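User: Hi! I have a protein structure encoded as tokens and I'd like to know what sequence might fold into it. I'm fairly new to this, so please keep things simple.
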């Protein structure tokens, strides 16, 4: 198994774990854990795609990772009035 396969498999496992935990109501989508898992998983998938020169997926996973990082850093409700 190539290094890119190991990296991609790890990333996919993390992404799927976050998805399943959210689906079964064990991890809310607005939690930092969920955002962190999405950031790490997407980052690993993007890195593995870069290693094998599959650039469309690099773009997809980079955007996914950036949004996950943003939601990890910026608290939920910063730009909305959730108190109403």
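Assistant: Happy to help. Inverse folding works backwards from shape to sequence: for each of the 84 positions I chose a residue that suits the local structure. Here it is:
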């Amino acid at each position: 198994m190539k290094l890119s396969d190991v990296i991609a498999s790890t990333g996919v496992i993390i992404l799927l774990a976050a998805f399943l935990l959210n689906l079964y109501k064990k991890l809310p989508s607005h939690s930092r854990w969920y955002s962190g898992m999405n950031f790490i998983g997407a980052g690993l998938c993007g890195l593995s795609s870069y290693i094998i020169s599959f650039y469309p997926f690099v773009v997809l996973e980079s955007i996914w990772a950036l949004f996950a990082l943003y939601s990890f850093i910026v608290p939920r409700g910063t730009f909305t009035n959730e108190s109403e």
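A useful reference point when you look it over: Residues 17 and 64 are 16 Å apart (CA to CA). Feel free to ask if any position seems puzzling.
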